[in-house]
Amino acid sequence: MIASDQTLIVYFDPPMEEGRAEARHLQNRSALRAHEQVRKLLVLLQDEPVPGIRNLHPAYGSVLVKFDAMRLRHEEVEEILRGYLARMDSVALPEPRVVEIPVCYGGGFGADLNDVAALHGITAEQAIELHSETTYLVYFLGFVSGFAYLGELPEELVTPRLATPRRQVPRGSVGIAGNQTGVYPFATPGGWRLIGRTPIPMVRAESEELSLLAIGDRVRFTPISAERFALVERAWQ
Amino acid sequence: MIRVLEPGLFTTVQDLGREGFGPLGVSASGVADAVSLRVGNRLVGNGEDAAGLEMTLLGGTFLFPEGAVVALGGSDFGATLDGEAVELWTSFEARPGQTLRLGPTRSGARCYLCVRGGIAVKPFLGSASTHILSGLGGHEGRALRKGDVLEIGAWKGPEVGGSIRRGRVSAQALEKLAPRKSLRVTAGPQSDWFSEEAQRAFYESTFRVAEESNRMGIRLEGASLKADGGRKEETGGSACSTGGGEMISEGVALGAVQVPESGMPIILFVEQQTTGGYPKIANVISADFHSLGQLRPRDEIRFERVEMETARGLLREQEELLASPELVVG
């Protein structure tokens, strides 16, 4: 699908069904399959770069491909990508890394934790347990540098985003929105409900990987105390 | 060396940006009006991608303790060198100890200062561009402040097409490259989510550039363009839906005109988010990107639909003009 005069989008999204509860599990599986396709295309394009393709913006079930419009036409890019797509079955995805992220939940670290718990009729402790007992998948990085969209939250924690976004969210804040969770790598505006904060930097300008998380990683959050938060934060300074 | 005596309203180091880091959520960033920076660099004999200073609405005051060959491009900020007016789009020499002073804009949003050798900063992901939101790149990842000192890079002789003598941009070229208020667009990936009525409102009415526009996005005020959701309405049943009436997030292109629930369109700009969950009604063509960089708050703009073939032709024409030896005259 053409997106602009220098981009096109490859969709792997399964066709949308009406949001019936019983269809949810099935949709979840096909969404994961679509995401695998996204990663495979990314691996292929990074291993065998196409001259003239300048950038890739992966998301849940699609990849935006940006190319040099002085060198390539949409039809040419499409044909090249078709060739890559035909070879996707042969791509083996690496074993996912598991990344542990320490989080101090609630209080001044997660201003919305009590509201979230109250919305679901559970205690703050139960909300923390639910959030930290799940292993999440990094669907993609977007919004700002190093912001990972993690899925999926346990059903009991699925919460709409704030009606009015905050003008400034503290760096390292752990938020939830819909059935996603994520960590704000920088102090930015944001509409996700904040339940905690991590003392470790998500973006490290001096490191080669830049971002702590990469697409396809698995993530677990470990609850820590405010004292531990202060210690770890100091160690990173 | 350049000493920043006054930084101006919002002045950053920019080059043509960093491509290839979309998978990390890093947008290309880079100069808001690439045509002006590229032409300015040619005037001082640099390669097109050398870093310069991007000034916004109000320019700064800069001292050149060791002198420099300088050119200004983009909008007219009423520049003077030691009190003498200097022309836009013309290279000139600042002698050691001279001060270049710029004021408020007399035309568009941005003015560019290019120096022979370029502004030397430590590159971040291969580019000198400042990315404000993440505080990375450019000069310490931020806008310039009073007292900052910038290094000028070593000049390795004229690049292909670059001039070593005093030069100015031909009047004919300037006319062709002049920023537009009628922005040409191609259809967006979700154009068909919008009713005929919304489409008509988009192409037939005038929009005003909102105050809170910046390098991330140009916010518009005017006719409301609510998408009716069309064939793919998000029901919240799928994995990682964003809730509300939004669609599933996908990669977004530079110049995409996205329409959030408020119905007020936003044009995604150089420091854009790499993905987004709002339907896009249209996309500004590449040949008009530089015009976006000269839009000021309260400017009135319109959108004009063109076919993809026209968009390609206009880009080719612009690139040929920028590469032509006739661009700079002696």
Question: Mind explaining what this structure looks like?
Answer:
The complex is a heterodimer of chains A (237) and B (330). Chain A is an alpha+beta fold and 237 residues long. Chain A has helices spanning 24-47, 74-86, 113-119, 124-132, 226-236, and strands at residues 2-4, 7-11, 53-58, 62-67, 98-105, 136-141, 148-151, 166-169, 173-177, 180-183, 188-190, 193-197, 218-223. Chain A folds into two domains: 2-90, Gyrase A, domain 2, CATH 3.30.1360.40; 98-236, Cyclophilin (Beta Barrel). In chain A, the strands form three sheets. Chain A has a seven-stranded mixed β-barrel with strand order 5-12-9-10-7-6-13. In chain A, strands 1-2-4-3 form a four-stranded antiparallel β-sheet, covered by helices on one side. A two-stranded antiparallel sheet of chain A has the order 8-11. Chain B is an alpha+beta fold. Chain B has two domains: 2-166, no CATH class; 182-323, Cyclophilin (Beta Barrel). In chain B, 14% of the residues lie in helices and 27% in strands. Chain B has helices at 34-43, 171-177, 196-204, 289-292, 308-323; strands at 2-6, 11-14, 52-56, 61-64, 68-74, 80-81, 84-85, 91-94, 98-101, 110-115, 119-120, 149-152, 168-169, 182-187, 207-209, 217-221, 250-251, 256-258, 266-268, 275-276, 280-284, 300-305, 328-329. A seven-stranded antiparallel β-sheet of chain B has the order 7-6-9-4-1-12-11, with no helix packed on it. Chain B is globular and about 60 Å long.
